[in-house]
Amino acid sequence: MNFVFFSPHFPASSGEFAIRLHEEGATVLGIGDAPYDSLDSRLQAALTEYYRVDNMESDDETLRAAGYFTHKYGRIDRFESLNEYWLESDARMRTDFNIEGTKADFIDNLKHKSKMKDFFRKSGVETVRFLKNPNRESAAAFTAENGFPVVVKPDLGSGASHTYKLSNQDELDYFFHTSPADTEFIMEEFIDGIILTYDGLIDQGGIVRFQASHRFEQSIMKVVSDDDHLRYFCLKDVDAEVEQAGRSILEAFGIRERFFHIELFKSNKDGRLIALEVNMRPPGAWMTDSINYSYEVDIYTLWARMVVHGGIGEAPSGHYYTGYASRKDRKHYRHSHEEIRNELGGALVRYDAIDEIFSRASGNRAYQFRADSLDRVREIADYIQAEW
Question: Where does residue 93 fall: left (phi above 0), alpha (psi -120 to 50 degrees), or beta otherwise?
Fold first, then answer.
């Protein structure tokens, strides 16, 4: 298999996927803007060849790189970044070179939140009521019907950037006065609840080869707006209702041979499960490693085996609950790093700094830890994030 990995160097987890592809026997060909000498030595060893471009936003440069690889190595079997930012670039290259996978004519359905809603309805999973491209008149009608608060977010993109919870008419008026004119927004009803994810691997035949679930008890939107620290938990088991909803959504989208990350609201008011967003890529932050620690697997290898060989055998079971708790440099915490290490002992599985580009949402540095119960990982997160 000739696998062109777009941006194999960033984020760091991309390198792990590329390395596992090489270990499974694929010819891994990298395209990126970083100097070759700056790549991790393990990644260098995994890449058969690396083509450096000056500008990864330039389709012309990427076309030349892919054309060079085709001339030298033959047909490209896969072109992938596993990165939300490059999904459109990936799809255009697959279209231009007739490569297996999602093509340019479908990628908008995976990028635009408004278009996802049609597939949620097709799946039979309830989704949030929304308004595309709100203006003052349409927003007034929407809030009259659904009430405040409402959430306004860019139709295109991931994360919580430029996402706002508007609680009254004055805040809505301020949004219209200050919002960037070059961004298309959608307005959604506000759901008071937690986020449960459905994460995993789906193969070429539409079989879910692995599944996991994360629980977010904070609002990511509020974490970003308040510049707060973050916590979340990888669950030992996938709730049956989450699994049923997630599989129905996968079937509606018809996605194949992908890592998937589906976000669902669990309403605090009535317990309803409501589809929020779908991302056909690995979950972000340290969630891939959360899966590894909870299930005692190497999810990078499971993905590579699925892509190269078509299957990964029987899906493993979960053993632990794994928590993530970040800290912000601007905050003053009660317990020192040494105290945390001594308190957690073997329960602490990772500690590291966070790349600055991700720090607004994910924190400046973070801890990963695991335990036998959800209550215990909550207690550990409380200890790590306790402030003076």
Answer: alpha
